[in-house]
Amino acid sequence: MIPNHTHTHADFRLRYGHPLPFGASHVPGGVNFSIFSTYAKSCTLVLFEKGSAQPYAEIPFPPEYRLGNVWAMIVFDLSYEDLEYGYRFDGIFDVREGLHFDPKNVLLDPYAREISGREVWKQESRHGDAHPFRARIPFEAFDWEHDRPIKRPESELVIYEMHVRGFTAHPSAEVQHPGTYAAMKDKIPYLKDLGVNTVELMPIFEFDELENTRTNPLTGEQLCNYWGYSTLAFFAPKAGFAATGKHGTQVEELKDLIRALHSAGIKVILDVVFNHTAEGGENGPTYSFRGIDNKTYYMLDSSGKYANYTGCGNTVNCNHPVVRGFVIASLRHWAAEYHIDGFRFDLASVLGRDSTGAPLSNPPLLESLAYDPVLAQCDLIAEAWDAGGLYQVGNFPSYGRWLEWNGKFRDAARRFIKGDPGVVGEMVQRIMGSPDMYAAAGRKPTASINFITCHDGFTLRDLFSYNEKHNLDNGENNNDGANDNWSWNCGVEGETTDQEINALRLRLQKNAIMLLFVSQGVPMLWMGDESGRTQRGNNNAYCQDEDWNWLDWALTEENKGLYRFTRNMIAFRKANPALRQPEFLTSKDVIGSGYPDISWHGVLPWKPDWGLPSRSIAFMLCGRHGAAAGGPSHFIYCAFNMYYKPLEFTLPVLPKGYVWFRVADTSLPSPDDIVEPGQEVLLPGVKTLTIAERSSVILLGKPDPSVAVT
User: Fold this and answer.
1) I need a surface site. Which of 300, 400, 484, 587 has the fewest CB within 10 A?
2) Catalytic-role residue among 209, 271, 383, 530
3) Domains in the chain, ordered, with CATH?
């Protein structure tokens, strides 16, 4: 039975609304609209027909429809499929008091689940400049079949960070709808073949790719907001990433992609940006939060100016109770409605600041997310720093739940691989899963998301091709992007035809991939590093929607040796549980096997050299310590010689009846540089091993197939 209306406005029948949930939701016979503002004097619902430049109706909320600080109203007989809506708020405009009310602005609903206005990538809004973005109510009848979020232990994750558009936008992708969710679905077999089991998607919440006003000084072309770290709507998927965005069915297309990824056994993690919004600083546009409740949603100083701990003009007031509820509601929405498996939080240290910007020892938001019942099985990953100088890697409030992008692993690995002295001692800790950072706090090695490259910085190929960043294309006089890249061009800046240099660069890339996948913790690979993708030395390609910033699929064949090496290293990690321990290794023999779970070596066995001049590391894992959990009882010996001369390593003595097999040697050409699991090369009688300069080796100690083990 449809309830009777209590009010009318023109031809609209109205009724007292439900204050919760916020946003627009279906009720019998109508739509419930609910929105919060502490300081506004009045609120008006603005209704548009789909695609129309001007509204067809504006319905003021009757004063009695306000409950506390929430306006809630049911409007009957709306055709929600053809409906777009926004709000006008009236109140005091006083910048010094942090109040920005202006009834001329039609504002986005912060809880909108679908946005119109940028339905096709880089296509100007058909609504005009006055009201460019509108909220819509999505059709919610998607058949998930039996899909549920994937339950996989953190120690088993192999993460592939990627940009949805950049993954398939290049013509070489040969897909029907380049740069879309649908095209990504077509490439799932590639992800399966590579061996990754988790994708981390760069921002897919609705953003405005046309907000960048800069031009490329070298070409004169308009730049864009390609990465999307400037959110417009925190409940709505990016329509421009959908082949069907022009039809308003981006929600269904994204869900179809997630269902297909889950069917392939691949988890989905979203990179989310709650530290700032697309409204920027004092001179930024007013789309939503600024015009609805500026003092609540943003950190302001005593003169009403925006605090800027993000480098993006504003900072979201995350630990205000209302804003905290907003963030939690958004994440619950994605977990429940899209079956998302986890979230990576951009500049997550902002989430631990109070309303004055001071770091909190027990941040309410971080604690709430850690213990939220809906998010209980979601992976929570922090980028544990912000632009205000707060660096919390190893110290991020974890509550037994939070993982961290380990920037210290990245920096130590880069310095070690390029042969810097004085890094070996730290690299030992990073290979162990960073117990120096996490063990004392009771955290696990899986707290460490290990990476050497990511979207932010050089690609792996560029890391060994450039000493300096080359960001002139970004229109910021090469002032943007990090300067401390710990990179090495191997003697020539940029691309070269020198085959010796190219061979060295390839070897260093393989060394990096090997180091990443034999380290304890959770490995993360950046899109295209498996095939030698280059950004031409640009280490901050946030504004570049160009073919050189997309994944060139021809590289998979052109650099098939590197791709094969990466795929086989992932397979080797999966085949050997000793490489992905859920607990820290002890360097002790706790089971009486005769060997510690991990032992460290130098050019002589059992005599590691971690001194200042050292540029080599060797360690051995005793698989017998993991055999009880179902792993093989093999011994894994890994040696890295980052010195500029060959070194001879004497190998540890194996148990009687065991012999060494070679798994990988980065000094060898493909396909001899690595084998698939089970195809290891027997090294009969070998006691010493010469490892070439700037090369690394993996050996497997297992029973001699010609001798019975006693």
Assistant:
1) 484
2) 383
3) 154-577 (3.20.20.80), 585-703 (2.60.40.1180)
